[in-house]
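Suppose a colleague, Dr. K., hands you the sequence of a protein chain of 424 amino acids and asks what its three-dimensional shape might be. Before reaching for any lab equipment, you can write down a predicted structure in token form. Begin with the sequence itself:
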Amino acid sequence: MKPVFGLIDCNNFFVSCERLFRPDLEGKPVVVLSSNDGCAVARSNEAKALGIPMGAPAYKYRQLFKQQRVVQFSANFELYGDISSRIVRLLTSVTPRTEVYSIDESFLDLSQLEIADYQQWGSWLRERLAREVGIPVAIGVAASKILAKLAAARAKHSGDDNVLDLVHISEEDRAGHLLNTPVHDIWGVGWRLAPRLRAEGVYNALELSRMSPQLVQQLMGVHGRRMVAELNGTACHPLEMFGKVRQTIMHGRQFGEDTNQFYVIEAAIARLAGRAAAKLRKEGLLARGAALRLSTNRHYPGYQRIGRHFLFETPTADAGTITSRLISRLADGFNPNLYYHRADVMLYDLASQHPLQPDFFNHLSLAELAASQARLEAFDDINGRFGAGTIRFAAEDLSKAWQPKRNFCSPHYTTDWQELPQLT
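The predicted structure, expressed as tokens, is then:
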């Protein structure tokens, strides 16, 4: 059975999530800004038409925003994450063979589904997502992941109803889509490898697909050889199903204001560690190690970055244990003369809760682990029923000064009982 992949790519996802509850913004230029309202991380088509590039610093475009009445939103990741989860649930009801590639993209294995017309199927799925979730998507269908990515991108501009099937298409038409895809837009090339390929006279996906495997491997390694094979319809990258154990979990934030106050940083660490630990528990994992990185503002003189890391005697997903160890390590040698700009907490060397392998000296206390898990289950149950943050560790409330600026944040329409949309 030949592989067939479908890629579902949400259109301007963050903007689409905001418009879902603000239909009055349809047809108007909208941008979503990054942490601290710094840069544009999502733009509506109308904003793109004004020449606002991805990553545009908001302060440089402030006059244009005002003149063109560009609507700004602070990134509302709680909302975007919830909408993304709804999309994934719908996709997995279509087929469990689903890979969530990012918050706004998912691959589907279509080879085992009885689909006679992929174009018609894509239109049906797109209409269902619009009706049941409210988010517009582009859908690409092809024999490999790279071709499916290319098809989804082309579908936004030249597909029928934002759907493009590269399986049931003539060689001439398929070659036309590859010809009109610049080499830097190919998944896996990017800005680092594109200049190297252009130096060899390769400017688009069609020219790359016709390179000899030996030459492309010399230029890009095995990665490049697989890319050429995928562009020619040979699947080299299998679907990565749910259940794959990740290697690390990291949460980081840029502070709203640079600070040298230990208690402010302590509050930030508690929040970041709490979120990372919650993700551990959700995925049934424990961490054997944790790391903390603090950095000053790299745009100022004297940029510095400090790191702390350690291993737990007993693998854990307990935010209290993780936070206390991180703060204890930070207190040792903390420099109050530095003003810190960002903190990152990483949990690594992850293992499944079941079965849990003890170490050689059997430091693992099953009784302590059982008590900890029972407490954390109650913790997660309460927050799941009444909203995230209903109960939390006291260290999180030591200060709010570190929290990023979100001056244009929309309500948490779907994740906070107090901010549910109201009909009038």
